Each structure stands twice: as C-alpha cells, then as structure tokens.
Amino acid sequence: MDRIVAAEVTALNAEIFVRDTAGKLSRQFMPFSPWCLAEKGVSVPEGAVETALSGTAPLNRRFEFSSLEVYENALPELKKTPGVLTVRDLSCQFFSTSNLRLFAGMDFNELVRMQFAVTVSADEKSVEAIEVSDNRGFAARFDIDNCGGELEILAAFNAAVKERDPDLIEGFNIFRTDLPFLEKRAKKLKFTFDCGRDGKGFSSRKSRFPVAEKQISCTRYALYGRHIIDIYHLLLFYDAVHRDFETFELEYLKSYFHIPENSGICDTVRELSALLLPASFYKCCTLPLNLQDAVLRGSGAALDALFIAEYQRAGASVPYPEEARRFAGALTGAGEAGVYHNVRHCDVRSLYPSLLLYLDRAPVRDELGIFLKLLRQLREFRLNAKDRAKAASGSEKQRFNALQNTFKILINSFYGYLGFAQGSFNDYALAETVTAAGREILSKLAQKLEALDAKILEMDTDGIYFTMPENSDSDFDMQIISVLPPGIELEFDAVYPAMYCYKAKNYALLNADGSISVSGAALKSRALENFQRRFIQCVLQAKLTGKPDLIETCYSELKTSITNRTIALSDLVKSEVLSDSPENYKRKQNTPGFRRSAPYELALASDKKFRAGDKVEFYVTGTKAKLPVVGNSKLLSDADPAVRDENSAYYLNKLDDLYNQFK
Q: How far apart are CA 115 and CA 264, in angstroms?
C-alpha cells in the first residue's frame, strides 16, 4: 500500500490515512499487535503471545499483546525487566512488522502542509492573534478585530485545522513557545482542542535529541493522524553540518536562504520547510519512522530501527549492542599556515561506505546479511535518482535531487552506525578496520601528490586541498587516481584562486565568484562576539585578496569605536542558548566539579522566566581588562542606552589578542 500520510495505533489495530493522487483522504484499519523483544526465559506477560525467533542472538522471543491497553499496562514492568527490548514509538512498531512505509509513492509537494504562528499580547498574558496558511493557497489571520475575543481566536484556529485537514502542521519554535502557550491559555479559558483526526487535541511529552555534540531538551507535541514539525529543529541540524548561522533570528534566516524580505512568518516557515524537510520526508519512505522521529532521531538510531525492522519481518532474533570503546579515527593533517594560490580539492567519493563494499565486510552479528544488502540497495537507489535528476526538469528534478541527497545521507550513516553505542549490530572492530583502510588510502594519495611535487595544505578524512605543481601535465589526475583500489572513486571537485590556512581544520577559501567560504570554529564560532567576527572577516578578506592594509584600517576603526563607546552594544554581546533549565542548573550548584556560568546566573537573577532553549544575550561590565565574566556581566535587555557601562578595557584586550593572532 502506497501514499500513506499517517499511521496511528488504536486500541485493537492500526489506523492508516491514505491520500490519493487527487488529494482525497481515506482511512483504513489494519490488524496490529504491539510487541517487544525478550530473551528466552523471561516470563511472558499476561495477555501476550510468545513467538520464537530464528538465529543465535539473545533477543530470540517476541511478545505480541492482545490490545494496546494490555501492552501499556505491561510496559512499566517490561522496561524494568532485564533481557527485554521495547520500541517506544508505536507507529515504528507497526511499520517494523509490515511491508508499509510512510509517504511511499508520494512527492513531498503532495503532502498537505499547514503553517501557523501565534502573536502574544504585550503583557504575555493572552493570545492576540494566530496566523495560518497552507501550501494550497489558504491564508488567514484570526485576531480580536475579526474574532471578538481570545476564546474565539482559539476556536477559529481549531476550526481551520479541521476544515483544511493538513497532514502536517509546522511552525518556527512552536514546541518551545506557541504550542505551550496555546495549551496554557486553552486550559485557562476551559477550551478543548479537537483538531486531531480522532476528534481529540494535542498531546505532549518531554524529550531529548542529539544535535552534533549537544543533547537538546524539548517538549514534543503530537496530534492524532497529523505530523507536527518545529522548523527550528531542522535549522539546528542544518547548522550542525554547515556551521554557518550567525543567529537563528527569522530575519537573518530569510536573508541567508534568499527568502523575500516581505515574507511573513507563515510564508517564511513554508519556504524553510520546503528547503529543509524533504530529506526527512523521503527518509520515511525507507525507514520505519514517523516524520517527527525522522527529523529528531540521530542517524545511528534511525538505522538501528531499520535493521531491527528487517529482522522482525524475517522473524529473526536481535543481538545486544557491543560495549562502547575508543578506536583510531580518520587521518587528518595540515601544512604550514599562510596564503596559497590556485588551490585544488580532491575528494574520495563516499569513502567509508565504498570501503565497506570493497572489503565486503558486515557487522559480525548481522546473521541475515542485512547490512551490506541494504547498503548496496540504497547505493543503487541513489545512483538511479541521480541519473533521473539529470534527465528531469522542474519539480521532477527537485524530487529526484531530494531523493538522491536523502540516500546519500543514509549511505554515509552506515559507517557511523558501526561505532554507535546503542546500535544492536554495532561492530567496533569493523569500524577500526574501515578507518585504517581509509587512512591508508588517504596516505597513498598524499604520498603520490608529494611525489608529483604538489604541496598539501589540508587533509581530513576523505579529502585533500593542495597546490598544483608547476609544469604539471594532462596525466596528473590519472596518476593520482592510479593509487586507488577498485570501486573507490576520486573526484577533483573544485579549484580556488586562494586559500588561507590558519591551523588544522581552520581555513578560508576564496571562491571563483569572489565570495569566501570559512571552515573551523576558530574562524567562525558563534561564541565570538560580533566585533570579533567582523575583524576576522576583514582579516580573511585582506589575506585572500592581497590587501594587508585592510587589517590595519579595520583594527584602528574598531579600537576607536570601543574606546569612545560609539560601537553598537549589540556588537559586544555574547549570545548563548540555554541547553538546560536554570532550575536544573541551580540544583547542580553543590555537586562536585560544578562550574558557574554567566548566562545561567543572569537568567536566574532576571525577572523574566528563562527556560531551556531560550537565548541569553549579555555583555561584560567592570573596568579591568582581565576578570571573570561570572559576576561581571549584564543582560542586554537590562542595558540603559543613555548610560554605557560596558567594559572597554576587556573588549580592547580581546581585540588586541585577535590582532596579534593574525599578524
């Protein structure tokens, strides 16, 4: 069955929502029994049927429950029982034991998407307006003028969701602001939302999800038969890869993604969703996940769900993860700092997945051979999608590009899964073997380049930046490629007029169009204040274009404006997002090794109630050039524009440090 836009587990079965090619929605019920996996010898819960699974792995029993109620009653005890594996999301359970997947056979543009944004009154005590739009041309604003009161605004929004019947509801930062506030006001006004496809309202639960090296806390919201996506989360994942954003403010994001300046919040959300959500949408066509999980689950957890699903469909037992351990990583290296011209970059295409296929190696506990089978299938799917994208145009080209990009992400996740601590089929020895092979290949490439008198500037995991030797001939590329084993492909993907190497993994590239691309936290970290970013940008521009006088000019202007306090206070501000609540921070104060933090201290002392996920903007006060920031800082919102009290000596010292670093 294709074109499933949602699936929900009910008391005795699963309800499937299907949208046909004409856009009409229909409902179907399918048999489904909630389940969990267990070792042999674990007592079968009352109301469950035990099924033996093939293979030698320890989780070789599946308990299938007679109803959702029986399963939920047994769940608390199951979670405490050794030798039991539960899959939390019920739709994931359903997809894992069926041949069905969300959105299979659909294009992203066929999904009915509704955007909304809540405007809160100046005193933050009531809903002033709710704007709504969808991707079928609908737009409305519900406010006091056209509704008559706050209760009527909530009712109008609720009615619009029911009438327009979206498959997906999306907004910006709605899990942290809009939905909690609507929930709070509805409770106060005794209003009941019933805009789910079961006639019920929003449900919520506390959750955490990984973004790069951080764990983000949030409240996740759900609505029966519909998906809810917070675009802010997609932006977090995007920035974790690109590290480009200066801020997460919508006005900045419109400029970054070239969204028209006059776009309202709903229009901006719709455009951002169209850019960032298709990868997760198409991921659902392969993985046994709902859309929210496809966005928020890490790649390791997503692949683990896929592998467990394949084993369940085959009636096979599942192993436990190997205990986590360290192993040697990729080869990295950097040449001398400085500016270089006519720089080339070569990149081993999908190095680690290609090595897995070349070595023909799968995790040792993958008894069914699912790992390599799926890797080969996804690779074929991606190549097919790439070929079809080249031959297509318009929306078809967009669709196949989104597909091939999704498959690329999944393919590249296979190696990372080997070292995923919670992965049922992880394999640290194989991960070690693959990285060793990767280091060998990159070493051979480097040795060949140096033998041909190329100068290596930067080397990391699967790519090398280098300057071409003088008098290189037309066979240069082929000589480099000759050192690669069969099935491993090298791509010479770019030439840059100039490159500034600062230190390992920190460099800037001058592109052919005159723009500058920056890599590395030392050159573009959001931990830097705005004036530091401006100075670094000036330094990079000066070095890459051969105009050293720009550095002195910029330094002098910044020094004068800081000394005279004519610099905008916002240029001195540091912004930090609270990853934890101030209350939790306070509770940890007496624990060993606790370190005080200025943003949390300021949040606790403020009249405003800060929560996890809130941004704290502050600047340093005092008179000494070197002093602790904790106890010598102030919220930007508390600053008096008429009485400048920033610590000029502190900021001049930071500017001098930067200036001396780049001399």
A: 11
Cα-based angle 628, 631, 637 (whole degrees, multiple of 5) = 115
Beta strand 25-31 with 13-19 is: antiparallel
Residues 6+ apart with CB under 8 A from 263: 254, 271
Element (H, E) at 214: strand 214-222
Contact 356, 375 (CB under 8 A): yes
| H/E segment holding residue 208 | strand 203-211
Which residues have CB under 8 Å from 529's CB, separation 6+?
A: 571, 572, 573, 574, 651, 654
**What is the token pair recorded at 150?**
């706050």
Nearest 5°: phi and psi at 477?
A: -60, -45
Of all helices (H) and strands (E), which one includes residue 500? strand 490-503
pTM (predicted TM-score): 0.86
Alpha carbon distance 555, 662 (integer Å): 11
- Which contiguous run of DSSP H or E holds residue 539? helix 530-545
What pLDDT, in 10s, does the model give residues 189-230?
999 999 999 999 999 999 988 887 778 888 999 999 999 999
Helix (H) or strand (E) holding 656: helix 648-661
* Contact (CB, 8 A) for 619 and 639: yes
Q: For residue 79, with 0-12 CB atoms within 10 Å meaning exposed, 13-18 middle and 19 or more buried, which class applies?
A: exposed
The string of pLDDT tens digits covering residues 55-106 is 999 999 999 999 999 999 999 999 999 999 999 899 999 999 998 999 999 9
Closest to 95 in 3D by CA, of 223, 220, 228, 6? 6
Percentage above 90 pLDDT, the chain: 75
Which residues is 65 bridged to in the sheet?
48
Q: How far apart are CA 52 and CA 654, in angstroms?
A: 66
